[in-house]
Amino acid sequence: MLTVTANRSTSERYRARLACVVGLLTLAMLCGCGAKMEETTTSTPPVEMPMDTSMMLPDTSMADTTMHDGHTGSDPEDPPPPPMSAPPDEITQFPWPPPEPTLRYSIPRQLIARDSTESSGRVVDRITTALNRAGIDMWSIHAIGSKGFAVIGRMEHIKDNGTPDDPRFSLGAQRNRKFDLGAYLKALIFATPGRYRVIVIAITPEVIRQYGKSPTAAQLETLLHEGASDLPDPMRGHAIGRIRPEALIYEFHRRDAHSEPVLVNSNRTTLSAVDHLAGAGIWSKDQLVGERNP
Fold first, then answer.
1. Residue range 115-126, pLDDT digits in tens
2. Residues in CB range of 285: below 8 A, 6 or more apart
3. In terms of CB atoms within 10 Å, which of 114, 220, 222, 290 comes out highest?
4. Residue 101: which of 253, 227, 264, 285 has the closest Cα?
5. What is the pLDDT of residues 63-102, one digit of tens each?
6. What is the pTM of this model?
7. Alpha carbon of residue 29 to chain centroid
8. What is the mean pLDDT of residues 274-280?
9. CA distances (Å), 30 to each of 18, 22, 37, 41, 43, in order?
10. Cβ–Cβ contacts within 10 Å for residue 118, how many?
11. Residue 277: phi, psi to the nearest 5?
Protein backbone atom coordinates (compact mmCIF):
# COMPACT_ATOMS: atom_id res chain seq x y z
CA MET A 1 0.00 0.00 0.00
CA LEU A 2 2.82 2.32 0.82
CA THR A 3 4.59 1.42 -2.45
CA VAL A 4 1.61 2.31 -4.61
CA THR A 5 1.25 5.67 -2.88
CA ALA A 6 4.95 6.51 -3.37
CA ASN A 7 4.84 5.63 -7.05
CA ARG A 8 1.76 7.82 -7.51
CA SER A 9 3.51 10.81 -5.86
CA THR A 10 6.57 10.40 -8.06
CA SER A 11 4.43 10.28 -11.19
CA GLU A 12 2.61 13.43 -10.26
CA ARG A 13 5.90 15.24 -9.65
CA TYR A 14 7.12 14.22 -13.15
CA ARG A 15 3.91 15.44 -14.78
CA ALA A 16 4.19 18.73 -12.93
CA ARG A 17 7.80 19.19 -14.03
CA LEU A 18 6.88 18.26 -17.64
CA ALA A 19 4.07 20.74 -17.64
CA CYS A 20 6.44 23.40 -16.34
CA VAL A 21 8.99 22.63 -19.05
CA VAL A 22 6.34 22.69 -21.77
CA GLY A 23 5.11 25.99 -20.46
CA LEU A 24 8.60 27.47 -20.49
CA LEU A 25 9.21 26.22 -24.01
CA THR A 26 5.92 27.66 -25.20
CA LEU A 27 6.72 30.99 -23.59
CA ALA A 28 10.13 31.01 -25.19
CA MET A 29 8.63 30.27 -28.59
CA LEU A 30 6.11 33.01 -28.17
CA CYS A 31 8.79 35.53 -27.22
CA GLY A 32 10.94 34.54 -30.19
CA CYS A 33 8.11 34.95 -32.65
CA GLY A 34 7.30 38.37 -31.25
CA ALA A 35 10.88 39.51 -31.62
CA LYS A 36 10.99 38.18 -35.17
CA MET A 37 7.84 40.03 -36.09
CA GLU A 38 9.19 43.27 -34.56
CA GLU A 39 12.42 42.92 -36.52
CA THR A 40 10.51 42.35 -39.77
CA THR A 41 8.30 45.33 -39.12
CA THR A 42 11.20 47.70 -38.49
CA SER A 43 13.36 46.49 -41.40
CA THR A 44 10.73 46.45 -44.17
CA PRO A 45 9.93 49.90 -45.73
CA PRO A 46 6.31 50.88 -45.89
CA VAL A 47 4.53 50.23 -49.15
CA GLU A 48 3.39 53.42 -50.87
CA MET A 49 -0.14 53.20 -52.16
CA PRO A 50 -1.04 55.10 -55.37
CA MET A 51 -2.91 58.30 -54.74
CA ASP A 52 -6.24 58.99 -56.35
CA THR A 53 -5.83 62.39 -57.98
CA SER A 54 -9.22 62.51 -59.62
CA MET A 55 -10.66 64.53 -56.79
CA MET A 56 -7.62 66.64 -55.97
CA LEU A 57 -7.47 70.38 -56.71
CA PRO A 58 -4.61 71.54 -58.98
CA ASP A 59 -1.65 73.22 -57.39
CA THR A 60 -1.34 76.56 -59.20
CA SER A 61 1.74 77.70 -57.35
CA MET A 62 4.11 76.17 -59.91
CA ALA A 63 1.70 75.45 -62.73
CA ASP A 64 2.23 76.69 -66.31
CA THR A 65 -0.50 79.26 -66.79
CA THR A 66 -0.09 79.69 -70.55
CA MET A 67 -3.29 78.92 -72.41
CA HIS A 68 -3.45 77.39 -75.89
CA ASP A 69 -4.41 80.74 -77.36
CA GLY A 70 -1.31 82.44 -76.01
CA HIS A 71 -3.02 84.28 -73.12
CA THR A 72 -2.13 83.72 -69.49
CA GLY A 73 -4.65 82.35 -67.07
CA SER A 74 -2.93 83.22 -63.82
CA ASP A 75 -5.50 85.85 -63.00
CA PRO A 76 -9.05 84.96 -64.03
CA GLU A 77 -10.12 88.53 -63.39
CA ASP A 78 -7.76 90.05 -65.99
CA PRO A 79 -9.76 92.16 -68.47
CA PRO A 80 -10.05 90.75 -71.99
CA PRO A 81 -7.75 92.26 -74.64
CA PRO A 82 -9.25 95.22 -76.49
CA PRO A 83 -10.80 94.41 -79.86
CA MET A 84 -8.60 94.95 -82.90
CA SER A 85 -9.18 98.37 -84.34
CA ALA A 86 -10.54 98.59 -87.84
CA PRO A 87 -7.84 98.81 -90.50
CA PRO A 88 -7.26 102.31 -91.81
CA ASP A 89 -8.69 103.34 -95.14
CA GLU A 90 -6.37 102.14 -97.83
CA ILE A 91 -5.45 103.82 -101.08
CA THR A 92 -3.00 102.58 -103.65
CA GLN A 93 0.23 104.43 -104.27
CA PHE A 94 0.98 106.04 -107.59
CA PRO A 95 4.35 104.86 -108.94
CA TRP A 96 7.04 107.26 -107.79
CA PRO A 97 9.20 108.46 -109.42
CA PRO A 98 6.37 108.64 -111.95
CA PRO A 99 6.52 106.76 -115.25
CA GLU A 100 8.20 108.94 -117.84
CA PRO A 101 5.57 111.06 -119.63
CA THR A 102 5.56 112.58 -123.07
CA LEU A 103 5.16 116.05 -121.55
CA ARG A 104 4.78 117.65 -118.15
CA TYR A 105 3.41 121.03 -117.18
CA SER A 106 3.51 122.99 -113.95
CA ILE A 107 -0.13 123.93 -113.35
CA PRO A 108 -0.70 127.43 -111.90
CA ARG A 109 -1.35 126.96 -108.22
CA GLN A 110 -4.36 129.27 -108.32
CA LEU A 111 -6.23 126.72 -110.45
CA ILE A 112 -5.72 124.03 -107.82
CA ALA A 113 -5.86 125.65 -104.36
CA ARG A 114 -6.85 129.01 -102.97
CA ASP A 115 -4.09 128.94 -100.36
CA SER A 116 -1.94 126.50 -98.38
CA THR A 117 -4.56 126.10 -95.62
CA GLU A 118 -7.18 124.64 -97.94
CA SER A 119 -7.91 120.97 -97.33
CA SER A 120 -6.78 118.20 -99.66
CA GLY A 121 -10.42 117.17 -99.96
CA ARG A 122 -11.39 120.56 -101.42
CA VAL A 123 -8.48 120.39 -103.86
CA VAL A 124 -9.26 116.89 -105.12
CA ASP A 125 -12.92 117.86 -105.53
CA ARG A 126 -11.90 120.87 -107.62
CA ILE A 127 -9.76 118.67 -109.89
CA THR A 128 -12.37 115.95 -110.39
CA THR A 129 -15.02 118.59 -111.08
CA ALA A 130 -12.79 120.02 -113.83
CA LEU A 131 -12.34 116.53 -115.32
CA ASN A 132 -16.06 115.82 -115.26
CA ARG A 133 -16.81 119.19 -116.82
CA ALA A 134 -14.34 118.34 -119.61
CA GLY A 135 -16.17 115.07 -120.30
CA ILE A 136 -13.50 112.85 -118.74
CA ASP A 137 -16.01 111.05 -116.57
CA MET A 138 -13.75 108.15 -115.58
CA TRP A 139 -10.81 108.82 -113.29
CA SER A 140 -9.27 107.42 -110.14
CA ILE A 141 -7.10 108.66 -107.29
CA HIS A 142 -3.80 107.33 -105.96
CA ALA A 143 -1.70 108.52 -103.05
CA ILE A 144 1.79 109.94 -103.51
CA GLY A 145 3.49 109.13 -100.24
CA SER A 146 1.54 110.45 -97.24
CA LYS A 147 1.12 114.09 -98.31
CA GLY A 148 0.23 113.99 -101.98
CA PHE A 149 -2.05 112.35 -104.51
CA ALA A 150 -2.49 111.83 -108.24
CA VAL A 151 -5.67 111.82 -110.32
CA ILE A 152 -5.51 109.75 -113.52
CA GLY A 153 -8.09 110.11 -116.29
CA ARG A 154 -9.24 107.59 -118.88
CA MET A 155 -7.55 107.26 -122.27
CA GLU A 156 -8.88 109.58 -125.00
CA HIS A 157 -8.75 109.38 -128.75
CA ILE A 158 -7.59 112.82 -129.94
CA LYS A 159 -7.15 114.82 -133.12
CA ASP A 160 -3.91 116.31 -134.31
CA ASN A 161 -4.78 119.62 -132.61
CA GLY A 162 -5.31 117.97 -129.20
CA THR A 163 -9.10 118.11 -129.11
CA PRO A 164 -11.15 114.91 -128.65
CA ASP A 165 -11.74 112.78 -131.74
CA ASP A 166 -14.83 110.75 -132.49
CA PRO A 167 -15.28 108.29 -130.86
CA ARG A 168 -13.47 109.88 -127.92
CA PHE A 169 -13.11 106.72 -125.83
CA SER A 170 -12.81 103.98 -128.42
CA LEU A 171 -9.73 102.55 -126.71
CA GLY A 172 -9.43 101.73 -123.04
CA ALA A 173 -11.91 101.69 -120.20
CA GLN A 174 -15.64 101.77 -120.74
CA ARG A 175 -17.85 103.50 -118.19
CA ASN A 176 -19.35 101.26 -115.47
CA ARG A 177 -17.42 98.28 -116.77
CA LYS A 178 -14.86 96.32 -114.78
CA PHE A 179 -11.41 96.23 -116.30
CA ASP A 180 -10.81 93.06 -118.27
CA LEU A 181 -7.53 92.46 -120.07
CA GLY A 182 -9.24 90.31 -122.72
CA ALA A 183 -11.81 93.03 -123.39
CA TYR A 184 -9.04 95.61 -123.52
CA LEU A 185 -7.10 93.58 -126.09
CA LYS A 186 -10.27 93.14 -128.13
CA ALA A 187 -10.89 96.89 -128.01
CA LEU A 188 -7.27 97.38 -129.03
CA ILE A 189 -7.81 95.29 -132.14
CA PHE A 190 -10.82 97.26 -133.27
CA ALA A 191 -9.67 100.69 -132.04
CA THR A 192 -9.17 103.41 -134.62
CA PRO A 193 -5.54 104.10 -135.50
CA GLY A 194 -4.34 107.54 -134.50
CA ARG A 195 -3.37 109.56 -131.42
CA TYR A 196 -4.38 108.87 -127.83
CA ARG A 197 -3.55 110.39 -124.48
CA VAL A 198 -3.83 109.90 -120.73
CA ILE A 199 -3.62 112.90 -118.39
CA VAL A 200 -2.37 112.55 -114.80
CA ILE A 201 -2.58 115.48 -112.38
CA ALA A 202 -0.06 115.06 -109.55
CA ILE A 203 -0.36 117.14 -106.37
CA THR A 204 2.68 116.75 -104.18
CA PRO A 205 5.32 118.78 -102.34
CA GLU A 206 7.93 116.54 -103.94
CA VAL A 207 10.02 117.83 -106.82
CA ILE A 208 10.05 115.50 -109.81
CA ARG A 209 13.76 115.02 -110.38
CA GLN A 210 13.67 111.77 -112.34
CA TYR A 211 11.27 109.38 -114.03
CA GLY A 212 10.57 105.71 -113.98
CA LYS A 213 10.29 103.46 -116.99
CA SER A 214 8.01 104.58 -119.83
CA PRO A 215 4.57 103.00 -119.38
CA THR A 216 2.47 101.02 -121.80
CA ALA A 217 -1.16 101.86 -122.51
CA ALA A 218 -2.20 98.70 -120.64
CA GLN A 219 -0.24 99.73 -117.54
CA LEU A 220 -2.00 103.08 -117.41
CA GLU A 221 -5.34 101.34 -117.82
CA THR A 222 -4.47 99.15 -114.86
CA LEU A 223 -3.63 102.22 -112.76
CA LEU A 224 -6.97 103.74 -113.71
CA HIS A 225 -8.86 100.71 -112.41
CA GLU A 226 -6.77 100.18 -109.30
CA GLY A 227 -7.26 103.71 -107.98
CA ALA A 228 -9.86 104.96 -105.50
CA SER A 229 -12.87 107.17 -106.10
CA ASP A 230 -11.89 109.56 -103.30
CA LEU A 231 -9.22 110.28 -100.73
CA PRO A 232 -9.52 108.58 -97.33
CA ASP A 233 -11.10 110.86 -94.72
CA PRO A 234 -7.82 111.46 -92.82
CA MET A 235 -6.15 112.65 -96.02
CA ARG A 236 -9.13 114.79 -97.04
CA GLY A 237 -8.86 116.76 -93.82
CA HIS A 238 -5.17 117.60 -94.15
CA ALA A 239 -4.19 121.11 -95.20
CA ILE A 240 -2.72 121.03 -98.68
CA GLY A 241 0.38 122.99 -97.61
CA ARG A 242 3.06 123.90 -100.10
CA ILE A 243 2.37 121.84 -103.21
CA ARG A 244 3.71 121.54 -106.73
CA PRO A 245 0.79 120.82 -109.09
CA GLU A 246 2.05 118.95 -112.14
CA ALA A 247 0.25 117.67 -115.23
CA LEU A 248 1.80 114.54 -116.74
CA ILE A 249 0.66 113.90 -120.31
CA TYR A 250 1.13 110.45 -121.81
CA GLU A 251 0.57 110.61 -125.58
CA PHE A 252 0.32 107.39 -127.60
CA HIS A 253 0.21 106.74 -131.31
CA ARG A 254 -1.32 103.75 -133.00
CA ARG A 255 0.08 103.52 -136.49
CA ASP A 256 -2.41 101.04 -137.97
CA ALA A 257 -4.94 98.38 -137.07
CA HIS A 258 -2.19 95.79 -136.60
CA SER A 259 -0.03 97.73 -134.11
CA GLU A 260 -0.31 98.58 -130.44
CA PRO A 261 -0.30 102.15 -129.12
CA VAL A 262 3.27 103.32 -128.56
CA LEU A 263 4.26 106.13 -126.19
CA VAL A 264 5.35 109.23 -128.08
CA ASN A 265 8.62 110.83 -126.99
CA SER A 266 8.67 114.50 -126.12
CA ASN A 267 10.84 115.31 -129.13
CA ARG A 268 8.38 113.66 -131.54
CA THR A 269 5.07 115.17 -130.50
CA THR A 270 3.65 118.16 -132.35
CA LEU A 271 1.51 119.21 -129.40
CA SER A 272 2.44 121.18 -126.30
CA ALA A 273 1.26 120.40 -122.79
CA VAL A 274 -1.06 123.42 -122.94
CA ASP A 275 -2.51 122.08 -126.21
CA HIS A 276 -3.35 118.82 -124.45
CA LEU A 277 -4.83 120.33 -121.28
CA ALA A 278 -6.82 123.00 -123.11
CA GLY A 279 -7.79 120.59 -125.92
CA ALA A 280 -9.20 118.19 -123.32
CA GLY A 281 -11.26 121.08 -121.94
CA ILE A 282 -9.94 120.83 -118.38
CA TRP A 283 -8.70 124.44 -118.36
CA SER A 284 -8.50 127.06 -121.05
CA LYS A 285 -5.26 128.36 -122.51
CA ASP A 286 -5.89 131.69 -120.88
CA GLN A 287 -6.21 130.03 -117.47
CA LEU A 288 -3.11 127.92 -117.98
CA VAL A 289 -0.93 130.75 -119.24
CA GLY A 290 -2.66 133.86 -117.88
CA GLU A 291 -2.92 132.56 -114.30
CA ARG A 292 0.81 132.00 -114.32
CA ASN A 293 1.49 135.66 -115.18
CA PRO A 294 -1.41 137.69 -113.77
1. 999 999 999 999
2. 274, 278
3. 220
4. 264
5. 333 333 333 333 444 444 333 223 335 799 999 999 999 9
6. 0.65
7. 92
8. 98
9. 18, 12, 11, 17, 20
10. 16
11. -70, -45
